[in-house]
């Protein structure tokens, strides 16, 4: 069964450093998403991406964040200058466009020290 | 503001019992609702969805009930198994603008053998 994959599973970085979280969505999907989940809290939407551009973004997704689909398979989330409060699980998801069903990856745990 | 919330943070049941997980929503404009299951260390997994023009929808061992009058959503799991132990989130999605789900806080279901 096709699945969304994410790398790395755990990323530790120092405050102020740039990080890039990587995702490989399901191959025939057209819509891509990033969410985050701070420990013990709700899953929060960050950004959605379709047709090589951002279609929606939340208030969390400020200028420190960017997304890119550098090739036909990867979808990345970049945080330019990490803050302590960026520590969270980051989930990538994709959907096919014919339904609202989103398939989530296993997540990347980001720890900012 | 609008919110999605869950009544109980933890639900403990015996294997074989039926489980009922509840969710209240406050956005009367929401017309699509989703239940997700999140196992420890994994991303959310789609379980079942329901549109606002329906009161009930059944899947394999799961049933979602929607009461629009009181803005209440429930997930019923029949013959609960240890593998059902997870956190369950409800999410709502508004119509005609954003297609991004707003997640509830989650209920932890613990199934005792």
Overall description:
The complex is a heterodimer of chains A (113) and B (113). Chain A is mainly β and 113 residues long. Helices cover 0% and strands 50% of the residues of chain A. Chain A has strands spanning 5-7, 10-13, 19-24, 31-37, 43-50, 53-57, 65-68, 75-79, 88-95, 103-104, 108-112. In chain A, strands 2, 4, 5, 6, 9, 10 and 11 form a seven-stranded mixed sheet that branches. Chain A is globular, with a radius of gyration of 13 Å. The model of chain A has no long low-confidence stretch (mean pLDDT 93). With 113 residues, chain B is an all-beta fold. Chain B is 0% helix and 56% strand. Chain B has no helices and eleven strands. The radius of gyration of chain B is 13 Å and the shape is globular. The N and C termini of chain B lie far apart (41 Å). The model of chain B has no long low-confidence stretch (mean pLDDT 87). The A-B interface holds A 4, 33, 41-45, 48, 56, 58, 91, 93, 100-107 and B 32, 34, 41-46, 49, 89, 93, 98-106.
Spans of chain A of 5+ residues with little confidence (pLDDT < 50)? none
Reading the helices and strands of chain A in chain order gives EEEEEEEEEEE
Amino-to-carboxy terminus distance of chain A: 37 Å
- State the share of residues found in helices of chain B, binned by percent: under 10%
Report the biggest beta sheet of chain B as strand number plus sense, adding barrel if it closes.
6 strands, mixed
Beta strand count of chain B: 11
Write down the overall geometry of chain B.
globular
Mean pLDDT of chain B: 87
**DSSP summary: helix tally of chain A:** 0
Beta fraction of chain B? over 45%
- State the order of secondary-structure elements of chain B, H for helix, E for strand: EEEEEEEEEEE
Report mean pLDDT of chain A, rounded to a whole number. Answer: 93
Rounded to the nearest angstrom, the distance between the terminal CA atoms of chain B is: 41 Å
Q: Count the DSSP helices of chain B.
A: 0
């Amino acid at each position: 069964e096709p699945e969304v994959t994410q790398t790395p599973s755990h990323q530790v970085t120092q405050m102020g450093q740039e990080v890039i979280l990587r995702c490989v969505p399901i191959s025939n999907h057209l819509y891509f998403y990033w969410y985050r989940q701070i420990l013990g809290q709700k899953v929060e939407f960050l950004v959605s991406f379709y047709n090589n551009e951002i279609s929606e973004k939340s208030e969390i997704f400020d200028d420190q964040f960017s997304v890119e689909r550098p090739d036909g398979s990867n979808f990345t989330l970049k945080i330019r200058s990490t803050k302590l409060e960026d520590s969270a699980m980051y989930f990538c998801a994709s959907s096919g466009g014919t339904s609202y069903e989103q398939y989530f990856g296993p997540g990347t745990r980001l720890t900012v020290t | 503001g609008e919110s999605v919330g869950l009544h109980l943070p933890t639900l403990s049941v015996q294997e074989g019992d039926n489980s009922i997980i509840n969710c209240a929503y406050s956005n009367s404009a929401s017309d699509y609702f989703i239940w997700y299951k999140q196992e420890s260390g994994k991303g959310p997994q789609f379980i079942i969805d329901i549109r606002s023009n329906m009161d009930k929808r059944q899947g394999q061992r799961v049933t979602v009930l929607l009461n629009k009058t009181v803005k209440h959503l429930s997930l019923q799991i029949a013959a609960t198994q240890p593998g059902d132990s997870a956190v369950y989130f409800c999410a709502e999605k508004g119509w005609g603008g954003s297609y991004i789900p707003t997640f509830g806080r989650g209920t932890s279901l613990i199934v005792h053998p």
